[in-house]
């Protein structure tokens, strides 16, 4: 098991969250998958391991993991929320054709927050940035 999974489980325990085998599996899957899966994709991936688990179980556990601050929900207008266990500051670039989402970091956007705060007097609590394009696999097809 990866150290990221171990660290996440320890953090949950510290928050008084009981670690069920399903929670462990969902968290591990999210941390290892860089694909930002939907709840359905998580369910399908883990179903062989947990035949009695329902999609509702996956949703409830995701909700609990979000409340614990371990997982972020990415809602991108296509009705299917995707989930991301990388809660560090990073941004997403999304393929308009296949919907694939990749992470990237760009630290100087913090400078944009400072500038916005300075020129408007607002207290900035965060920002969200999404870029849209066509991924390598989709571009290769056309």
TrEMBL record:
Cited Gene3D superfamilies: 3.30.1490.190, Winged helix-like DNA-binding domain superfamily/Winged helix DNA-binding domain (1.10.10.10)
Keyword Zinc: yes
CDD domains: Fur_like
Keywords: DNA-binding, Repressor, Transcription, Transcription regulation, Zinc
Transmembrane segments: none
Signal peptide positions on this chain: none
A Pfam family it matches: FUR
Similarity comment: family membership: Belongs to the Fur family.
Entry protein name: Peroxide-responsive transcriptional repressor PerR
Origin species: Paenibacillus lacisoli
